[in-house]
Amino acid sequence: MLLLLLLSTAFIPLHSARVIGGKEASLTSRPYMAHVEIGSVGSCGGILIREDVVLTAAHCNCNLGNIFVYLGVQDFMKPGQSWQRIRVRRWVQHPDFNSENYDNDIMLMKMTHAAELNEWVGTIPLPEADVPVTPGAECSVAGWGRMGANTRTDRLQEAEQEVMSDDMCQDRYWHYDPSRMLCAGSPYVKKAAFQGDSGGPLVCDGVVQGIVSNGDPDGRPPSIYTRISKFIPWINATLEKLS
């Protein structure tokens, strides 16, 4: 259905992993992918940006128990030597995160020890500060879990995402702020991040440009991503403190 038929006020945080319209990611193609297990009731995606630090969404509630990061996982039904499970020692939520409109939806997690980097596990570059992503850019998103309302999978899924104009998300979502948010996912192609992909990466030309944040309750694109380039000064300052 066309986006014009949807309520512009509808949005939901993208918990409980699901990539709609995607395909299975090939082995070792996304070594920066992290699965964040929050207590016994929650999970999010994450992005390995330093050997001991994962970037994710601030709305992933970290007050529900112990937090563990899984790295090197392609299929959760096939445990292997490539897996690394590391406990999170500390997390830093952006001080201006707003849980009502998901503004400043970004958080850093420091693990108890550095990951072992190999063909399965690796970091991904961050963008330059305040350098915009051009509408029309071809990017991709990835995550684990459901691919539809009644379809589940434990294999890492990926989907192409076209960067859209800010106007498209501003017309669709009352809370969209182009200075700190990024709009991606063509309304004419049913491929999108969805519930549970929160914290996962929007990757463009080998650089992580966005963090899965929120979107349509029924998974209709476009979705809203945290615009990482806006937060590079905060990320760098926080990384120094975490060191």
Fraction of helical residues: under 10%
The fraction of residues in strands falls at: 25-35%
Number of domains as seen in the coordinates: 2
At the fourth level of CATH, the homologous superfamily of the largest domain is Trypsin-like serine proteases
User: What profile does the largest beta sheet have?
Assistant: 8 strands, antiparallel
Which structural class do you get from the secondary structure elements?
mainly beta
What's the level 1 CATH class of the largest domain?
A: Mainly Beta
Mean pLDDT: 86
Work out the helix count. 2
Overall spatial form: globular
As a whole number of angstroms, the C-alpha radius of gyration is: 16 Å
What fold name stands as the CATH topology of the largest domain? Thrombin, subunit H
Low-confidence stretches: 1-10
Run of helices and strands: EEEEEEEEEEEHEEEEEH
- The strand count comes to 16
CATH architecture of the largest domain: Beta Barrel
Distance between the termini: 48 Å
Domain Peptidase S1: 19-240
Signal peptide: 1-17
Keywords: Disulfide bond, Hydrolase, Protease, Serine protease, Signal, Zymogen
GO molecular function: serine-type endopeptidase activity
What does this structure look like?
With 243 residues, this protein is mainly beta. It has two domains: 3-24 and 125-229, Thrombin, subunit H; 33-123 and 232-242, Beta Barrel (Thrombin, subunit H). Helix content is 7%, strand content 33%. The chain has helices at 166-172, 232-242, and strands at residues 12-13, 19-20, 23-24, 33-38, 42-50, 53-56, 67-71, 84-93, 107-111, 138-143, 157-162, 181-184, 192-193, 201-204, 207-215, 223-227. Strands 1, 3, 10, 11, 12, 14, 15 and 16 form an eight-stranded antiparallel sheet that branches. A hairpin with a 2-residue loop joins strand 14 and strand 15. The longest helix has 11 residues, at 232-242.
